[in-house]
Amino acid sequence: MKKQFTHFGVVMITAIILSACASPTPQTIVQTQIVAGTPQQIVVTATPGAAAATPLPKGSVQINGAGATFPLPVYTAWTYAYSYVDPSVIINYQGIGSGGGKKAAIDNTVDFAGSDSLVTDDEYKAGKDLQMLPALAGAVVPIYNIKFDNDKDIKPEDRTITLDRETLTNIYLGKITKWNDPALVKLNPKLEKNLPNAAIYTVRRSDGSGTTEIFTRALSSFSAEWKEKVGAGSSVEWPAEKAKLPAGGGRGNQGVAAQVQLTDNSIGYVELSFAIQNGITYTKLVNKAGKTVTANGDSVNSAMADYADGFDAKLTAVIVDGKGEKSWPITGYTYYVIHMQNMNDCVKAKKLLDYMTWTLTDASAAQRASDLGYSVLPDAVKTQVVKKLGEVTCNGKPVLSKP
To answer: 378 and 385 in contact (C-beta within 8 Å)?
Structure first.
C-alpha cells in the first residue's frame, strides 16, 4: 500500500503536550518530521499565551479552550469563520486530548474545554458546576497500512478492506494476529490472494483520549469478552500488548496516523475528519444490522437517530453500535465543557456563549461541520443545548438575555 502524506514531501505532525492551555508554564512540543519514510523528532518549547505580550486590539476578548483532538478540524474552521462574525473575539483552542481539557476546565485555566470522554462523577465533584453540552457527532474509523501481495493486480475499487464487529475486536484482543486469517479472507474474498501472511501491528492512542473512549465503548458493545476483560475508557490495558504481540501507541490522531503510515501491516483508529483531511484509507464495517457501511455524515446521522431519546439529565449519551441498517457503529458525540455559575468575567462569558450558540444554530457553521465529515445535532437535541446555555450565570445573573 502506498505511503500516505508523500504528496506533502515533508509532513509536520505536532503533538502538544500540556496540562492547561492558559498556564504560563513553558510546554513541550514534539514535532515529527517524516522524510523519505523516516521519522525525525524535534523537541521544542512554547509558552501558551506568549502572543499576549502584544496587546490585544482595544475592545477585543480572548477566549481560551483546550481538549479533544476529535473536533479540532471543525473548531479550527469555526474559529476562522467566526472572526468575520464578531471580529472582537479571538478564540484560541488547543487540541491536547479530552483528559487534559477536562483537567483544565476543573482547574479554571481555560474558558471552555472540548471532550469526547464523559465527565466522571469525581470530575463533576472537583469541577463543582461543570456542564457537558453536545456540540456535534462524528465517527471513529479504523485505518490501516497493509503490504498487499501482488499489489499491482488489485483493482482500485477492491482496495478498501471490510471488517465486522467481531474481527475488529479480535484483532485488538490479540486473537486474530495475521492479515490472511480466515475471518479476514471471508470478509474480503476479492483480496484472498493479496492479504499477506504477515503479523498485524496494532496501534492505539498513548494519551488519555475521548477517541479511545468511543472506540473501546464500541468494542465493549461488540464483544462480551472485551467488556469483561478490558472495558471502556479514555485509557485501557490493551490485550495485544499484554500478550507481547506487535503493537505501539501514538499521541493524538496525528501520532496514531504517523505510526500506522510508517509501519507496514498495521491498523489503528482515528477520527473520521482527520482521515479525510489527510487522505488516509479507512475500513468499511459490518454493523449490528449486518449491513456493510462506510463512515460518513449519513451513517453518523443514523447512529444519532438510533439513540434520539438517550440523553440523560447531564445531556450526555452513548451512541455506539446502533441498530439502524445505515448506522456507523463507532460513533460518538463531542462536547463543550463549561462552568454554569463559576464565570466572573461577564463580558467574556457573553462572548463565549454567543460563539457557542452560533456554532449550534448557524447554517454556515453546520455546513462547515458537514464538509469535514461531522454531523450536526438533531433539532430536538440542539433545543436542549441552547436552553441549557440560557441557564449559565455570571456573578449570579443570566449571561444571555431571555428571548
So the answer is: no
- Which of 336, 337, 299, 338 is closest to 319 using CA atoms? 299
Residue 40 clears pLDDT 80, i.e. is over it: no
For residues 68 and 16, the answer to whether their CB atoms sit within 8 Å is no
**pLDDT the model gives residue 402:** 62
Q: Which of 289, 246, 293 is nearest to 268 (CA)?
A: 246
Residue with cell 462536547: 335
Tens of pLDDT along 300-352? 999 999 998 888 888 999 999 999 999 999 999 999 999 999 888 999 999 99
- Residue 49 region by backbone torsions, left for phi larger than 0, else alpha for psi between -120 and 50, else beta: left
Q: What is the mean pLDDT of residues 20-24?
A: 33
DSSP 8: G
| CB-CB neighbours of 277 under 10 Å | 13
Reading the block at residue 55, the C-alpha cell is: 496587546
Average pLDDT (7-24) is: 32
| Backbone dihedral region for residue 187 (phi beyond 0: left; psi -120 to 50: alpha; all else: beta) | alpha
Q: Are 146 and 281 in contact (CB under 8 A)?
A: no
Domains of the chain: 6-46+58-137+333-398 (3.40.190.10), 140-306 (3.40.190.10)
Q: Cα–Cα distance between 140 and 297 in angstroms, integer? A: 12
By the 10 Å C-beta count (0-12 exposed, 13-18 middle, 19+ buried), 312 is classed as exposed
- Which residues fall within 8 angstroms of residue 313, CB to CB, at 6 or more apart? none
Stated pTM of the model: 0.79
Decide if pLDDT at 251 tops 50. Answer: yes
Length of the chain: 403
- Find all residues with CB under 8 Å of 38, minimum gap 6, and list them: none
The whole-number average pLDDT for the span 356-360 is 97
Q: What is the pLDDT of residues 223-241, one digit of tens each?
A: 999 999 999 999 999 999 9
Q: Can you tell me the distance from the alpha carbon of 336 to that of 106, in angstroms, rounded to the nearest whole number?
A: 13
Report the phi/psi class of residue 396: left, alpha or beta, with left for phi > 0 and alpha for psi in -120 to 50.
Answer: left
- Is the separation of the CB atoms in 21 and 96 below 8 Å? yes
